[in-house]
Fold these 2 entries.
Entry 1:
Amino acid sequence: MGMPQPAFYMFKCEQSSPPGMPKPSCVSPQTQDLFQHLAQGLMQRGIMGTVQPIRSACLNRCSSGPVLLVEPGHTMYVGLDKAKIDRIIEDHIIGGNVVEEYVIDPELWDEPISAKDMMAQMAR
Ligand code: FES
């Protein structure tokens, strides 16, 4: 048996804005330890490896931050804090059930457009 690939990738936006910037960002003094909390939560449960946490640049949903994208599934979680991250690990990653109440508004997360369709739109 080969080395198993991860079952999940968790992309935590780690983008911060310089002080004074009007644009919201996912990392502030109040939220700067969320990635560490996520990684520790995976380690404490012994699932680091089959779940890969990744520090991401901006995921383009800044006003809904802090955000976390779980793959597979394109599940975008928003407005995160430590308690929500714990529940996402327990319910989604371990239990297999998306935590719908933390998922982004569908108006802000519509169906993806294929690269081919996007290129066709741009050519018009
Ligand atoms: S700063 Fe996190 S989504 Fe843009």
Entry 2:
Amino acid sequence: MLCENCRLGTTVEISLTVGGHLVSLVSCSHCDKRIWQADGKGVEVNHVLTMANGMRK
Ligand SMILES: [Zn+2]
């Protein structure tokens, strides 16, 4: 996929499960833009970390 940020690089999507949520990380090899998505919605990385922390309880 073409990067929406720089429109020069291509993005790589990595999917993982964090705290029972499907989380995707889309990262661009050109501008290093990282987009996190949880359950199909864009989220801040802090939100992902919060979900990961909840897993350790
Ligand atoms: Zn980019």
